[in-house]
Amino acid sequence: MGSRCAGINSARALPEAIATVKDPRASALPLPEKPLTAHRFLPRTPLTGRIRVPGDKSISHRSLMFGALAVGRSRISGLLEGEDVLSTATALRAMGARIEKDGDTWVVDGVGVGTLLQPQGALDMGNSGTSTRLLMGLVASHGITATFTGDASLSKRPMGRVIDPLSIMGASFTPSPGGTLPLVMEGLQPAVPMTYRLPVASAQVKSAVLLAGLNTPGTTTVIEPVPTRDHTERMLRGFGVDVRVEEIGGEKHISLTGPVDMTPCDITVPGDPSSAAFFAVAASVVPGSDLVIENVGLNPTRDGIFRVLKQMGANIDYLDEREVGGEPVADLRVRHAQLTGIEVDPDIAPSMIDEFPVLFVAAALAQGTTITSGLDELRVKESDRLTAMATALSLGGASVEEREDGLLIRGTGGKPLAGGGPVTTHLDHRIAMSMAVAGLASAAGVEIDSTEPIATSFPNFMALLEEASA
Ligand code: S3P
């Protein structure tokens, strides 16, 4: 993990505990809605040159969280400065960590496992499911009470999937109806260890339980029938935690024994494959493109989109394959190619769960039909991504049939989509960026109702698009 994750730096004095919150839901009122900024993404000249996408969102969240739990100072370079990650930083500061930017590096002075402080007000998670679910895991085994709030999109997303296991470990919850935010939770210290088999393929649920286990005496085990992104396991080891992974009967048993002491770590965050995917599809579908996307993380639990695009005939070369921050990384050279529709194997879904919206755009421009299935999880992301993309692509002129657990898309065979809109992004960054890519390969452009959500994961998306098609 990174370049330096060994010994403990000089420990600093731990701040005094702060008095408990009197009315934890008092500051949970929703903020007034901001006006939206619509934008039409027009057809473009080929995408060329070299670009570098921002740091991986999943790794960025975990860098801050694990840094906050170590005793001493961790340094992070390449952190994604998107709104979701900044929500994590703000919440961790409210629980005692010092997090500051020093030049290009983020510096985290942790409080140590077991000594998170009582936050004074509600923790505003914005749009970020990862912040919410992972931080709920942390709070669950600390003797503190926390209120979690979020925007309209996050407030619809199911939290029962983390409430259930964390309740077994001893935390108590007062959620909004349907198990949603705003919710108040009270951690239990010491919590109760357990073995938990994941009922859904979710790295967030896996991580929430493992993070609760960090301050729980005894062994906490998560059984993972279907592999999901493994950044938590890899990175916890970098912070000195003994994470054991056993393969039993085709399932992963992931265990750690708490309470643990975590040692600080210097981390270099690789580029986000989920962000690179928008440019990989854009360069594949805009004729004449020849684009290098530098420093893209290619963890095998995350690279499904590139494997599927290649199956569809995409021209993607991995250049200078190397390791950054303990993760496989390469520069991706992507050249325009005529894509062909395929039936996507549902087993690959967890390794590209966030990339389906942009894959649907690639499918809409392919030769022939693309069929996807097994994608029920897409209905509970930042929006219902099956309905949102079926509606948006149809408005843009594509032929899409929505099914219960996937989409069937008849491609144009490389002809530009008609274009149109405005399409509704539902506060979902990936719908916004996917439809932006659709606009590049359309005759009249595609208008999206709001560009604001893009900042949650890819603040310089528009600037990079300008740079690549200049
Ligand atoms: C994430 C896990 C995935 C993914 C999300 C980030 C993580 O969510 O969609 O963007 O960092 O653990 P699920 O665990 O709900 O599949």
Automatic annotation (TrEMBL):
Pathway: Metabolic intermediate biosynthesis; chorismate biosynthesis; chorismate from D-erythrose 4-phosphate and phosphoenolpyruvate: step 6/7. Its main location: cytoplasm. The keyword Transferase applies. InterPro entries: Enolpyruvate_Tfrase_dom (IPR001986), Enolpyruvate_Tfrase_sf (IPR036968), EPSP_synthase (IPR006264), EPSP_synthase_CS (IPR023193), RNA3'P_cycl/enolpyr_Trfase_a/b (IPR013792). It catalyses: 3-phosphoshikimate + phosphoenolpyruvate = 5-O-(1-carboxyvinyl)-3-phosphoshikimate + phosphate. The active site is at residue 354. This is 3-phosphoshikimate 1-carboxyvinyltransferase. It comes from Qipengyuania gaetbuli. The gene is aroA.
